[in-house]
Design goal:
The complex is a heterodimer of chains A (233) and B (108).
Chain A (H helix, E strand, L loop, with lengths): L1 H4 L4 H17 L4 H16 L17 H26 L12 H21 L7 H19 L3 H23 L4 H19 L3 H24 L9
Chain B lengths: L11 H10 L7 H12 L5 H13 L3 E3 L9 E3 L1 H30 L1
Helix pairs in contact in B: 1-2, 1-3
Classes of the chains: A mainly alpha (233), B mainly alpha (108).
């Protein structure tokens, strides 16, 4: 029973762990209540109420959508790296050509990652309509890329760096990103565009990867330190 | 600190039950569970109970007393009592209106 308590955040266990164990000793949990405890643990992670290491103060509770999007961005970043490495190192060949096999999946995931990360940036004050547009355009351009192939491939792969470039410009306008991150995004998007029109896959993938990782890091930083203007969920 | 239960989402109802349970005297977690079952006829799970307790405590509506063994009693704060009173008065007015409308429609 106490193993279930390990699912709760440390700060939460420090505060409520003993009394919850005492309650469960007095009243052993049914199967339904075990599920309720697991849901409680998930809630304690998503909506931390207890001050402690890694836990937000209740009055600065992080909106759940932002936490989920940030986690998705991180997962997207990891899958992106795996995709890029696989393309060049593993003997896999899904579509008959190495360059378009796992790279296609990598680009698709990268699109989601970048769209999501742009959405994170869009949660900053004064950019209410931005996240939906960014995600929609990135998803459409990369969806087209994956589904239709040439010549849509070029259109989609052009759309993605352009989205990154727009994201960098928007971040510069709103001070959502530090100057170095904006510069990295700018260089990455220009390099990616050169890669598209120069038909050189390596720089393209690498540049989009860099952009995605910069945005993923920024998305995570926004989770750790949400803007003061945001309201509790 | 907030005196409104409306922002507690799915924990609003369990939180109201907890506040009602603590209305007469301080209670610890298990006693609250038992009391709520007696009051409402349904039992709230331990995960839900402590998620609601944490929210109520964070909002200053309840206050933890020194632990007795490992069991920690909770009591209503002044803000908690005011909030509970407002919630119950709102429900009373709502119920009264509903009953009046029901009796009006059944008599026509």
């Amino acid at each position: 029973m106490t193993r279930l308590l390990r699912l709760y955040p440390g700060a939460w266990r420090d505060r409520y762990g003993d009394e919850l164990v005492a309650l469960l000793e007095e009243h052993p949990a049914t199967a339904l209540e075990l599920f309720d405890l697991m849901r409680g643990a998930l809630d304690a992670h998503l909506h931390p109420q207890v001050r402690g290491s890694g836990a937000a103060a209740p009055d600065k509770e992080i909106p759940v959508n932002q936490r989920i999007l940030g986690a998705m961005a991180a997962i997207g970043g990891l899958v992106w790296i795996v995709g890029i490495v696989s393309t060049y190192l593993l003997p896999l060949d899904v579509y008959g050509e190495r360059d378009t096999s796992l790279a296609v999946w990598g680009v698709a995931i990268g699109a989601g990652l970048i769209g999501i990360a742009l959405g994170e940036l869009g949660t900053r004050p004064g950019s209410a309509s931005w996240p939906g547009h960014a995600i929609a355009i990135a998803s459409i351009s990369l969806g087209v890329t994956v589904l239709l192939g040439w010549p849509w491939l070029v259109i989609g792969l052009t759309g993605l760096p352009l989205m990154v470039m727009l994201g960098a410009a928007r971040a510069y306008q709103t001070d959502a990103l530090p100057g170095r991150a904006v510069a990295a995004l700018g260089v990455a998007s220009v390099t990616a565009l050169v890669g598209v029109f120069g038909f050189t896959g390596g720089p393209l993938y690498a540049a989009i990867g860099v952009a995605g990782l910069v945005l993923a890091v920024m998305a995570f930083r926004s989770i750790e330190a949400p803007p003061a203007a945001e309201h509790p969920a | 600190m907030s005196g409104d239960l409306g922002d507690l989402g799915r924990f609003a109802e369990p939180s109201l039950f907890i506040l009602v349970s603590l209305g007469d005297r301080p209670k610890h977690g298990y006693a609250i569970m038992e009391d709520i079952e007696a009051l409402s006829g349904s039992r709230i799970g331990p995960g839900t109970l402590y998620a609601a307790l944490a929210r109520l405590e964070a909002r200053g509506l309840i206050e933890a007393l020194p632990p007795q063994d490992r069991r920690r009693p909770y009591k209503l704060t002044g803000l908690g009592a005011t909030t509970l009173k407002a919630q119950l008065e709102g429900l009373e007015g709502f119920a009264r209106t509903g009953l009046r409308r029901l009796s009006g429609s059944s008599s026509t």
